[in-house]
Design goal:
heterodimer, A: 79 residues, mainly beta, OB fold (Dihydrolipoamide Acetyltransferase, E2P), 4-stranded antiparallel beta sheet, B: 327 residues, alpha+beta, Cyclophilin, 7-stranded mixed beta barrel, 6-stranded antiparallel beta sheet, 29% strand, Allophanate hydrolase (chain B), ATP binding (chain B), hydrolase activity (chain B)
Chain lengths: 79, 327
């Protein structure tokens, strides 16, 4: 069943560890509990967005470097 | 383990012990520290029967998860960060009971930036220079001079008053987080003449957005036009950039604009001096408001006179006095 995972905190969302590096996850990838999906930058620190549920990543709701609010949909997971 | 305490299960993003701060040492380079939203901390303390200056927790953007070792009375104020007790949502701006063994956690932030967690008896860390506030940059005060970490066991003081469960601050006495139309009032300062008339006007006309790196030290803004400086030969002792001055004291609330590009409002953990010109100072009545701004939130600065600033301060004082009647 598809479910939407929300951003835990506000900031800037990144899909890769650094510019030019491969994305942590792409649409269609398998996700295991503990996998890093992206990073949220706020107050000079990068907080990993870590999967708390396993499944298949269906689609991202935000682009790389988008501003996100806490609670904003980040990605859909087929759990 | 202390007689009354809580254990940090999850620390949140940067949860620190704060009281009303450590004034009197800024000339030695030690900032005020203390709650970024003082009104919210005072309200939370009053709700649980603590003195205004009792130490509580400041949680920013992401709430912690805390397991209590003893019964306690807790109130959450400030940001709209909905508290949960063993998973059951609890009201904000209201004192609720926590039984020994229960876990306090939080849902996602809905508005504002910083929530204050007051616990009856207060957080009982040692006072450093008259305050329990954390100054993390200086590794001073608070719990071991740093933000809380998972596994910390934080001591609580003995409650001085009994009961108070269900005490609440009515909505018209609270300050809800503003999502749009935020205006921050500024008194232009000593170095106002350093920028051109066009830059002076542009600073107040432009919409600025909170930069994600804004923190307790300074709130950085970007998105407005670069400020142009009046040409001059830099005086002896000033750096070569036109935004440099001969080193000066930085007041709490002062707005420096390094390179003329991104204004930074110095807040509770600020450095006390340096060589950047300051456009002016945010009035004291609006400093709490800044502590509740989220990254990317649009704001405008508004120019006021000293008289306006003092009137606004009187309004704030009256609002605090009204807390006594409401709680």
């Amino acid at each position: 069943m598809a479910k939407t995972i929300q951003a835990p905190l506000p900031g800037t969302f990144y899909r890769a560890a650094a510019p030019g590096e491969p994305a942590f996850k792409s649409e269609g990838d398998a996700v295991a509990v503990g996998d890093t999906i992206g990073l949220i930058e706020v107050m000079k620190s990068f907080t990993p967005v870590v999967a708390e549920e396993a499944g298949r990543l269906l689609a991202f709701h935000v682009e790389n470097e988008d501003a996100v609010m806490a609670g904003q949909p980040l990605y859909d997971l087929d759990a | 383990m202390a007689e009354r305490s809580f254990e940090v299960v999850k620390p949140g993003l940067a949860t620190t012990v704060q009281d009303l701060g450590r004034p009197g040492y800024y000339h030695l380079g030690l900032p005020l520290s203390g709650a970024m939203d003082r009104f919210a901390l005072i309200a939370a303390n009053r709700l649980v029967g603590n003195p205004d200056g009792a130490a509580g927790l400041e949680a920013v953007f992401l709430g912690p998860e805390l397991r209590f070792s003893a019964d306690a009375l807790v109130a959450i104020t400030g940001a709209e960060l909905p508290p949960k007790l063993d998973g059951v949502e609890q009201p904000l701006w209201t004192a609720f009971k926590v039984a020994a063994g229960q876990v306090l956690s939080f849902a996602f932030l809905k508005g504002g930036a910083r929530a204050y967690i007051a616990i009856n008896g207060g957080v009982d860390v040692p006072e450093v220079l008259g305050s329990r506030s954390t100054y993390a940059l200086g590794a001073l005060g608070g719990f071991e001079g740093r933000a809380l970490k998972a596994g910390d066991v934080v001591p609580l003081g003995a409650p001085t008053t009994a009961g108070g469960e269900g005490k609440t601050l009515p909505p018209d006495g609270r300050r809800p987080a503003q999502e749009s139309g935020v205006e921050i009032r500024v008194l232009p300062g000593l170095y106002w003449h350093r920028i051109t008339e066009e830059a002076q006007a542009g600073f107040f006309e432009d919409t600025w957005k909170v930069a994600p790196e804004a923190d307790r030290i300074g709130y950085r803004f970007r998105g407005g036009k670069k400020l142009d400086f009046v040409p001059r030969q830099q005086p002896f002792g000033a750096g070569s950039d036109p935004s440099n001055i001969v080193d000066s004291c930085y007041p709490y609330g002062s707005i420096q604009v390094p390179g003329g590009t991104e204004p930074i409002v110095l807040h509770r953990d600020a450095v006390s001096g340096g060589g950047y010109f300051m456009i002016g100072t945010v009035i004291s009545a609006d400093m709490d408001l800044i502590g509740q701004l989220q990254p990317h939130q649009p704001v405008r600065f508004q120019s006021v006179t000293l008289e306006d600033a003092l009137t606004a301060r009187a309004v704030e004082t009256a609002r605090l006095a009204r807390l006594g009647e409401l709680i």
